[in-house]
């Protein structure tokens, strides 16, 4: 609701939660903004990879073998899609704590999960969404992609890295980001606009990322101008 913050909604958290979830659902409701301390278990191997355990059982597994009492900001979740876990037999699990001491504990001691002592690393949020290098989607990575290839420059049915120009040899050399020659018929795969993906002119990208990337202009030999997008 416009103008309302978590402080305004907090007294009504139970009512808000009941509109979406059963009364017994854990971690449901509104709360004041707070820092979450996150860690990742990168190599969790469930007993049955075809049916990864739900969050409640993951939490119980983590807590069963330690004397330390965790303060959870949210229950553990699988970062790796279920289909991928079934395919490769393992996946990554995200741990979210409300106290920094809990994060430091698991970073120092690791966790015991599914009968194995596992290392834990600090979770680092990449901030802006990173387009899938296969289909350019902002919803998943190439590792989890099952879609057909799509070019981030022209929206054609090929990888962005495989885009070529019929007029010049610009793409025969390696270039940073989404650099392209002046002949490239730009068509954004996200909004169909006349620009490459991740351009500040793209309403989809700016809405998802919060800010458009910086434009970089560069010239090739012979005076031909090419543009690149700085995605850093």
Q: Can you list the strand order of the major beta sheet?
A: 2-3-1-6
Uncertain regions spanning at least 5 consecutive residues: 22-26, 211-232
Percentage of residues in helical conformation: 10-25%
The CATH top-level class label of the largest domain: Alpha Beta
**Structural class of the helix and strand makeup?**
alpha+beta
Number of domains: 2
Region (Disordered): 213-232
Word description of this protein:
- This protein has 232 residues and is of the alpha+beta class.
- The chain has two domains: 37-122, RRM (RNA recognition motif) domain (Alpha-Beta Plaits, 2-Layer Sandwich); 129-210, no CATH class.
- The chain is built from six helices and eight strands; from the N terminus they run ααβαβαβαβββαββ.
- It has helices spanning 6-9, 13-18, 55-64, 82-88, 100-109, 203-209, and strands spanning 37-44, 72-78, 91-97, 111-113, 116-118, 121-122, 214-219, 225-230.
- The strands form three sheets. A four-stranded antiparallel beta sheet has the order 2-3-1-6.
- The longest helix is centred in the first third of the chain and has 10 residues, at 55-64.
- Residues 213-232 are annotated as: Disordered.
